[in-house]
């Protein structure tokens, strides 16, 4: 039996898709929200360190299925490997209701004004596709505020002189400082830096009907058992469903966007939870699958007008894949630093995001989230044996005496860092899998070395007796911070979507997730994803009410 036509079908119930569903449903549009994963709860997910030892990628325990959806990874030497969601090279972003927001660290950063004007600020970087966004910080400021207050953000960035202007403070105070915070804060001030409390999508007091953080050690990569960590699964998606205008379908893998003879979208084809191929008719299609899966879906949607994939006339779909090159340092102290208070990360500086001589950008630096023992075992310095009695003794003695300071380096986008369809490998449903290839720009690694040095200096000033740097290699970046593959821009020859996230030349298909980011900032990108989803949804609703995209 044919499915009932709706105004909008949204592919992906993560950060972008959750906000779009809520905004469209509350505006009165009929919406179907498709999610390939499950709707998990804390009851589904035990605090199992042994399980996490087998899953390297953040969020892998929340999908996709290990057997059903592999990817092909091509390294910088051209060697191919079939990788599963628990492999680091897969660049996994959890496949479930809420997406990465179900299990992330929840840092809620606004990008800085220069982050939207990287080409104008630094000029062309040879070998890079570095560019400006078609929108600026002021275009997003009101929507940053909306995300912070509607969804709930805690922290205090009033001591950060580098932040972009804001009209309202954050709605919740920060958590009380941890021991690491108390050691790092005065050290930063002695160095002339400007430390402040990290903004977090995490309740520190009861907010919007959800409880406050209980500060457990199992935070990043785990479900929050008291729903204090904010995600789309416990905020905007329930609001969308409560309108009666939105239907959520889980276990649904989208195959392609359905197109008519003029390449206008008529809906999507997807496999339902029982592996039956279904056609969902819709006036609008909004793709929110994340940078890798959104590009994969467009590339798999072919038409005589788009023989290499929808929106791919200029060969930009899947290009410019970027994540963040995390760089920093570990510091070993001669006294215990571990106080068993989650989430761990609490203090940051933005002194090195911009203005670094000879460098095009930088990164914020912050202390790291709590590292469970199995994670710490992989962070021993180069002078310690990788196994055996020496290794074990170092882990036992150093685990509680170590601080990690790290930050997400803003990467130089590369045309050849990309997502393609693999010509040979298909997934469980017969859909070509994502093929990932490319690497990091040399200047990204140059910036990372600089940032690692600044992290090391902060730790030494705080009293570390030994330090060791953490610098990324040349391999392809992506991961939970994946972005860039469906770039937003004014010129269809060098971008995939316009400033409102609508595909050039197709008036009823939108991409609203981090894949539209022209650059990815020196911060965790989720608040920018949420803010842009609010902004793009508002523009979409205005267009809809003007009857410009109705069939």
Give the helices and strands, then pairings.
Layout: E1 6-11, H1 15-26, E2 31-35, H2 49-53, E3 71-74, E4 80-83, H3 118-122, H4 137-152, E5 154-156, H5 179-190, E6 196-200, H6 236-242, E7 246-250, E8 253-259, E9 265-271, E10 277-287, H7 291-300, E11 325-332, E12 347-349, E13 365-367, H8 373-376, H9 388-398, E14 402-409, E15 418-426, E16 432-437, H10 442-462, E17 466-470, E18 509-511, H11 526-545
Parallel strand pairs: 1-2, 1-10, 2-7, 3-16, 10-18
Antiparallel strand pairs: 3-4, 5-6, 6-12, 8-9, 9-10, 11-14, 11-17, 12-13, 13-14, 15-16
Helix pairs in contact: 1-6, 1-11, 4-11, 5-10
Q: Specify the structural class.
A: alpha/beta
Low-confidence stretches: none
Structure summary, number of beta strands: 18
CATH architecture: 3-Layer(bba) Sandwich
Main beta-sheet annotation: 7 strands, mixed
Number of domains: 1
CATH class: Alpha Beta
Q: Give average pLDDT, whole number.
A: 95
Report the helical percentage.
10-25%
Overview of the structural elements:
A hairpin with a 5-residue loop joins β15 (about 420-425) and β16. It is built from eleven helices and 18 strands. The protein has one domain: FAD/NAD(P)-binding domain, CATH 3.50.50.60. It is globular, with a radius of gyration of 22 Å. The protein has helices spanning about 15-25, 50-55, 120, 135-150, 180-190, 235-240, 290-300, 375, 390-400, 440-460, 525-545; strands spanning about 5-10, 30-35, 70-75, 80-85, 155, 195-200, 245-250, 255-260, 265-270, 275-285, 325-330, 345-350, 365, 400-410, 420-425, 430-435, 465-470, 510. The protein has about 550 residues and is of the alpha/beta class. The strands form three sheets. Strands 1, 2, 7, 8, 9, 10 and 18 form a seven-stranded mixed β-sheet that branches. A seven-stranded antiparallel β-sheet has the order 5-6-12-13-14-11-17.
